[in-house]
Amino acid sequence: MSTLLYPIKFAPILKDKIWGGNKLKNVLHKKSDLNNLGESWELSGVEGDISVVGNGFLAGNNLQEIIEIYMDEIVGEPVYTQFGTEFPLLFKFIDANDHLSIQVHPDDILSKERHNAFGKTEMWYVLQAEPKSQLVSGFVKETSKEEYLQALNSGELMSLLKSHEVSEGDTFFIPAGDVHAIGAGVLLAEIQQTSDVTYRIYDYDRKDSSGNTRDLHTDMALDAIDYKDTNEKVNYGKDKNKAMILATCQYFETNILDLNKTYTRDVYVLNSFVVYMCVGGSATISCGNGQSESITNGETVLIPAAIDNVTVKPNGEAKLLEVYVKA
Q1: Which of 2, 15, 160, 184 suits 95 as a labelling partner, its CA being 20 to 30 A distant?
Q2: pTM, full prediction
Q3: Could you tell me the CATH number of the domain that includes residue 318?
């Protein structure tokens, strides 16, 4: 166990989006002058948007630099063997004040072939949703490329897609190939592979401030879509003070911690970094080496793989997403 490493916070990378709003500022207390604040990238290894440490003696160093220095002590031996200094996951909070475009992400094979990038499998956890707010995920029934194209070209695509009315706590697992979109009025946490490859299918004919519509990727999307996908909301256990699985796949495992008592976890056996995203309340995270850090709603903390164990003590009550890579 490293006596030096500690729960690491990073400076959020804030993104102006045509569909963004003010909830990241007003609800999650992100400091920004942006009028349409759509995304807060909490922990990112995406080239050009690499997160910078905001606390402790590593403050000012970026994520790639600290992995170069500490290697598997930060990310875990299996992760370092596979990815080196590339951090494999991207963590975001997203505020959709307007509908996001209908889109799809390619899988690892197609992304490698076309973009020399990773695919993009992801998940969503809803923090807040206005009444009647919806998410789109999957088709209403198994379809075909021909049916899809006919609906797209005739302006009837939405009739093929499955809309889900959502509320706080709703969770969706979005594998690469799933046609999906976040609807207006939804504030959520997103956990995904480190990839920024998106194929935009439909954008409601919106125009930017210059009067231009955004590019669509109709042809590229055709080979990326899973036409058999009929995705449903995740059903998960609601027990308090224990880790309840929300999503598990080859890229990440995510648990929800709904705490009103102290939670302890032996994280060293995971052989992976662990990330905590606070989605309600606040808590103190303490490590076996004596290092500790507070976390509150809208904050994210990275626990290095070299840490033996963590104790999460809620300040009354707290909800956290607990994320790691399964060896």
Answers
A1: 160
A2: 0.96
A3: 2.60.120.10
